[in-house]
Design brief:
Blueprint lengths: L2 H11 L10 H9 L10 E4 L5 H9 L4 E5 L2 H13 L4 E5 L12 E6 L8 H11 E14 L6 H10 L4 E2 H10 L2 E8 L3 H12 L2 H7 L4 H19 L4 E10 L1
Parallel strand pairs: 1-2, 1-4, 2-3, 4-5, 5-6
Antiparallel strand pairs: 5-8, 7-8
């Protein structure tokens, strides 16, 4: 990603509590669904952003957490926050579709709201290879929750995320990729708003003024407004599901 785009995304998302739907409570629920792991295990957070979930994970996890993201300003923010709290987090600037880790490096791979960017199936498959035998993957994915899908929501997501599937279809695909499903749950609606959509929506007008001459930036901000409107109208029809899995 070029420096101008990195600066733009940092300006839009960098100082938000999270860069995707989620909460400390949901991160803890996902982690607590994992059976006891051996001491001093190594974890990887894929698409960590500024590390809202990474810092929660590091406080719970008995071992270091490697955190990767493609946006360097996000990682600088995470580094400062981790140092402030004396957390064993190691930020690395790296794309999730070109991760340079040796297979079997991690006991736990984590990802909240990020797998879509490289393709959920491809990301899950890559992470399966990175796990030690019997290691765990915990990841969220945007899915349809109902068969009766509002036309406006379908139109929006067919453009923004055409690979979106049902909750059950994602679970089936994960099993085909070699995972055993331990647990899954839908993130509550407040996970979308409290630390992500609400602070994001409060700054959109100001960002439109700052980037008024940047056609691509304005198009992105317009799409974000559309995303917020769709979520306000149809929260029951789609959502993020947290999948907790064991590699086999």
């Amino acid at each position: 990603m070029n420096p101008d785009m990195q600066e733009f995304f940092d300006r839009v998302f960098g100082d938000l509590p999270r860069q995707a739907p989620g909460s400390r409570a949901s991160t803890l629920r996902g982690y607590n669904a994992i059976p006891a792991m051996p001491g001093s295990t190594t974890a990887l957070d894929v698409g960590c952003g500024t590390g809202g979930q990474t810092r929660t994970l590091a406080k719970m996890h008995d071992g270091p957490v490697v955190a990767i993201d493609i946006i360097q300003p996000f990682l600088r923010r995470l580094h400062a926050l981790a140092a402030k709290d004396d957390l064993a987090i190691h930020p690395v600037c790296m794309s999730m579709d070109r991760m340079g880790f040796v297979d079997g490096s991690f006991d736990l791979v984590w990802s909240e709201g990020a797998f879509y960017s490289a393709g959920f199936d491809e990301s899950a498959s890559i992470c399966h290879g990175l796990l030690k035998p019997g290691g765990y993957l915990a990841a969220t994915e945007l899915v349809w929750l109902t068969d009766d899908r509002p036309e406006a929501a379908v139109r929006f997501w067919e453009t923004e995320y055409p690979a979106m599937r049902s909750r059950e279809a994602v679970a089936d695909r994960l099993q085909q990729l070699g995972f055993a499903l331990i647990d899954s749950f839908v993130l509550p609606d407040k996970d979308w708003w409290d630390e992500f959509y609400a602070p994001l929506s409060s700054r959109l007008d100001g960002l439109r003024e700052v980037f008024a001459e940047d056609r691509d930036a304005i198009a992105f901000l317009d799409s974000t407004v559309g995303e917020l409107d769709v979520r306000r109208q149809y929260p029951e029809s789609y959502g993020y599901v947290f999948y907790i899995l064991r590699g086999e």
